User: Which sequence fits this backbone?
């Protein structure tokens, strides 16, 4: 994709940490060098050899720490601008650090990974290792950490060996499962799809309250399903109700870290599954949930075939206007949270956005629980292509999704066409404003 599109921010993964306390720049710079030296994936360039992209692991490298001065008013825009800086994978390390200083005791460290070298699950080991190294460098010595049992190249060799065993069987499954898949979903866009996607994007947030979160968990348990399956079924039903048809493919990432040795490694392990839902016949939500459960479990048991292999093998109609095989993604972001502790300094997450959208629409959810396991609610983010959608359209869509989830939780044996997706003001508009008789 980097070769096809050229350097861009489409697959930049930014994470920002706010330091409320002093920062030792020299110790931080040395800690970044320790981190990059520990993980080969962070010092790997991708260069063509005989036309094929080939990895080059560097032994000598310069640490990319950029220092800036900013203000609270400019911080958000400065973070976005830094996160949007593209990587040139043939000569840039696939990780970059930007330190923004607001005053002597307020700093924000932006760590930006290129997706080729990491995934969402990589941020916990990245932050933990960086913190360990920083604490050591504050005391003027190298970190005394246990060497990593493997490096990313070991995983790639293991994956290649595994694919030699399962490729044909899993490819046969996906050929059958995705046979006749529509080229694209007909979504309720505000503008026609451009010939070439710009990948410009925006994000809107929403919250599923704790009471509904509890109901959805109960519904999942009653049907021997997961919370993800409930939301997946609801999103498929909603897209059908909004005119996308009855054949609904949705992309869902899997962590891909199937061995404990991979948990502390920074690298790209995630794979994407194409989960296909058929809403033909106006099933009840409970029936659709059972179908979704079966579909998802079957897909999980065939999750080893990398998505790019699947696209190459199925060879769908390709277009620079849209993502192949699916244009809508759904993910629960249940990453391990980094354990970051420093003396005399409080560290918290700082929001940062790149304003890009690899897909037409992606729904990202994070569910929260208290110490006893009681649901506290679900945070949601809807990332969308601004080529296609206005913010109000996506905000309305997320409200409809919450309305459908509530209706399904209250009445799971109701056909999906009869589940209420109207917003309160729309009820008033239809029953009162338009019915002034």
Assistant:
């Amino acid at each position: 994709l980097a070769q096809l599109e050229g350097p861009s921010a489409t697959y930049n993964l930014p994470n920002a940490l706010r330091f409320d306390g002093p920062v030792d720049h020299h110790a931080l710079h040395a800690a970044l060098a320790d981190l990059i030296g520990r993980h080969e994936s962070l010092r790997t360039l991708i260069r063509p050899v005989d036309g094929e992209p080939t990895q080059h692991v560097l032994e000598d490298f310069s640490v990319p720490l950029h220092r800036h001065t900013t203000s609270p008013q400019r911080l958000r825009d400065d973070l976005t601008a830094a996160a949007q800086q593209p990587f040139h994978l043939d000569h840039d390390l696939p990780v970059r650090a930007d330190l923004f200083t607001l005053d002597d005791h307020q700093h924000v460290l932006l760590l930006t990974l290129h997706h080729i070298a990491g995934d969402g699950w990589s941020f916990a080991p990245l932050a933990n290792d960086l913190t360990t190294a920083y604490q050591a460098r504050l005391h003027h010595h190298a970190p005394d950490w246990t060497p990593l049992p493997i490096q990313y190249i070991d995983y790639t060799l293991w994956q290649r060996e595994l694919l030699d065993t399962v490729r044909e069987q899993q490819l046969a499954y996906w050929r059958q499962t995705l046979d006749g898949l529509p080229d694209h979903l007909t979504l309720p866009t505000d503008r026609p799809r451009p010939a070439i996607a710009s990948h410009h994007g925006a994000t809107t947030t929403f919250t599923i309250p704790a009471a509904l979160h509890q109901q959805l968990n109960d519904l999942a348990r009653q049907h021997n399903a997961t919370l993800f399956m409930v939301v997946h079924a609801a999103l498929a039903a909603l897209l059908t109700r909004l005119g996308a048809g009855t054949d609904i493919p949705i992309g869902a990432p899997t962590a891909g870290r199937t061995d404990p040795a991979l948990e502390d490694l920074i690298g790209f392990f995630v794979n994407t599954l194409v989960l296909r839902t058929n809403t033909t016949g106006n099933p009840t939500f409970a029936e659709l949930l059972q179908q979704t459960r079966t579909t998802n479990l079957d897909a999980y048991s065939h999750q080893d075939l990398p998505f790019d292999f699947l696209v190459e093998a199925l060879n769908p109609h390709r277009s620079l206007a849209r993502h192949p095989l699916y244009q809508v993604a759904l993910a629960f972001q249940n990453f391990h949270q980094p354990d970051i502790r420093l003396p005399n300094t409080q560290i918290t997450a700082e929001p940062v956005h790149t304003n890009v959208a690899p897909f037409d629409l992606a729904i990202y959810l994070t569910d929260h629980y208290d110490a006893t396991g009681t649901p506290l609610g679900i945070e949601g983010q809807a990332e969308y292509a601004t080529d296609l959608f206005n913010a109000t359209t996506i905000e309305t869509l997320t409200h409809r999704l919450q309305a459908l989830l509530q209706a399904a939780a209250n009445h799971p044996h109701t056909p999906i066409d009869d589940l209420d997706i109207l917003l309160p003001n729309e009820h008033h508009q239809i029953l009162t404003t338009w019915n002034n008789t």
Q: What stands out?
A: Residues 425 and 431 are 10 Å apart (CA to CA). The chain has a mean pLDDT of 94. The radius of gyration is 23 Å.
